[in-house]
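Box 3.1 A note on notation
Throughout this textbook, protein chains are presented in two layers. The first layer is the amino acid sequence; the second is a token string describing backbone geometry. Keep the layers aligned when reading.
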Amino acid sequence: MKPITLAITASLAIVMASSAAPRLIVSTPSLAPESKIDLVLDFPVIEVSEIGKTVPNTWLEIQPALPGKLRWKAQNIAAFLPEQPPAIGVTYAFSISKGRMHLDETPVTAGKFATLSCEEFRIVSSHSPNRWSSDYTPSLSSWLLAFNDDVDPAAAAAFIAYGSKSGQRVAARLERVSAASAGYLGRQDPTWAA
């Protein structure tokens, strides 16, 4: 064998061995309900006839648990379809259990291979009531929470309340924000991405 052919063969073997770990491809910078998550393996693990089918998730072990299914997009690529949104402020660890094999009978690298974090819950801004007003009460402050357009304030009202240290809960009144009520956030020019 010529030295150049031997060098190329050795280089290819090293590259293939170094890329043998499973990967997650995520469509957003942090894990969010709208994130698209793809599991990518180096070699085929299913037959061509299984492409396009949605099956129970037997490949990904996720801690803490995030139930979902897999839809095979290719012989080595599956879309993870969560059955519930990820929890706010949680970091999920993704791993593959031992004993998984590619179709060519080579083992799939087992163990933890990725972590995805969800953003913390945060209040974007708050407005205190006019304390010099004749109807002032400190319990009437307003808070600006950012959600995507799919969240209906009427539906979300059941999940948001004010709570006291003594355990009393008072339902919050939710409404869509206007440019005037958003304060300085409503006057900022959003980027095209936003």
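The chain is about 10% helix and 25% strand. Confidence is low (pLDDT under 50) at residues 14-18, 189-194.
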